[in-house]
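Marked as duplicate of an earlier ticket. Keeping the data here for the record.
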Amino acid sequence: MTGQRTSTSGKRPATPRKPSGTSHGPVIVEPDTRRIRLPRVERRKSGLHGWGVFALEPITKNTRIIAYTGERITPGESLMRERRYLRDGNIWCFRLNSRWVVDGAVGGSDARFINHSCAPNCYTHIIDGIIWIRAARSIGAGEELTYNYYTEGGGEIQCLCRPGCDARL
């Protein structure tokens, strides 16, 4: 998932970490959520595509819902991985800025399962190197979360957000 993003400064910086039990390996960036109450969500089968993420409680507009976490990699590494992911019909890489991409397939949260929609109920917001998924409107319990991926690629995947949608990701 690469594309247009907004960056602002916040109070909770990213916490880089190595996967447990290793002294080397990928750097996983995730937020410090000890002081933030995030709404409850769950991953389950989606009517749109494969897995999806669903609200377990009502979520008010602009609420931070979940962080898109994963391995921080270079754009060059991302291009190689994206080719492999696209063969399976998946988009896991999310452009953080011009220097870094977050690969949700490696150490990522359930946010990687949030599906694309051309008429989404969520949006992305980057704060101190953390990609947050936020509610674009009030979201009801049981509703699937979606956001617009704003992909930059060659449009290899047909959008499935609604019957008759002719967009390509």
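See parent ticket for discussion. The chain has one domain: 26-147.
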